[in-house]
Amino acid sequence: MAVEAQVGAKICGLSTPETVDAAVRFGARFVGFVTYPKSPRHISTETMRSLGQRVPKEVTRVGLFVDPDDALLDEKLATGALDLLQLHGSETPGRVAAIRRRTGLPVMKAIKVAAVEDVERGVAAYSGVADRLMFDAAEGTLPGGNARTFDWTVLSSRAVKGMGPLPWFLAGGLTPANVAEAVRVTGARLVDVSSGVEGSRGVKSVDLIRAFLDRVKAL
To answer: CA distances (Å), 192 to each of 15, 32, 156, 210, in order?
Structure first.
């Protein structure tokens, strides 16, 4: 895969037509739908189907899964609303590879980061089986979307530099106020936001989506 030429953004945890439309209108390259019932951003299969239909083909539709079984994957993929699968649980490299084979879709694996060793282990384990990686904060009550950052300097490790053209996202506590600094420190070409564009927990704000995407476009 080619290295991303410009910084691109994913707005995750979308749940309404208004916020999906805003993400697309203001320039998101990826939109994310959550399939984890414990998350306040979880949506039903039918909602995913209807929201996915609103997204133009040039924007990638991402389904966030947490240790999904095959039945759940089959149910969500049958909507036709997903282009990329984001695995945000404890999926092993073998399971990631199996999901990729079974679904025929590209897969992104989230790596939970508390220290540089987490980055190195994650890259070593998953860079050969996943199409993309995501580095997210390890702390929090949910697998993602906890409004927590981590020490961005750990992404300057040799492991990340040695990934070559494998695309990766920076996630974890990003907001319109800190995304420029996060990109400056990490060199990330792709960023992911969820809680940082919410007016209240689980409820996206059109104004904050626009502010975040405007900051990304300015980078």
So the answer is: 16, 9, 18, 14
Buried b (16+ CB within 10 A) or exposed e, 101-130: eebeebbbbbbbbeebebbbebbeebbebb
User: What's the DSSP call for residue 2?
Assistant: P
Q: Give pLDDT, residue 143.
A: 53
Domain total in the chain: 1
Determine the pLDDT at residue 144.
Answer: 47
In a domain? residue 1: no
All residue ranges of the chain with pLDDT < 70 are 1-5, 139-147
> Can you say whether the dihedral through the CA atoms of 160, 164, 166, 186 is positive or negative?
positive
Q: Is residue 2 part of a domain?
A: no
CATH (domain of 49): 3.20.20.70
Q: Could you tell me the residue range of the domain that residue 91 belongs to? A: 8-217
Q: Decide if 3 is inside a domain.
A: no
Closest CA to 110 of 147, 63, 71, 69: 63
H-assigned helices in the chain = 17-25, 45-52, 70-77, 93-103, 116-126, 158-161, 179-186, 206-217
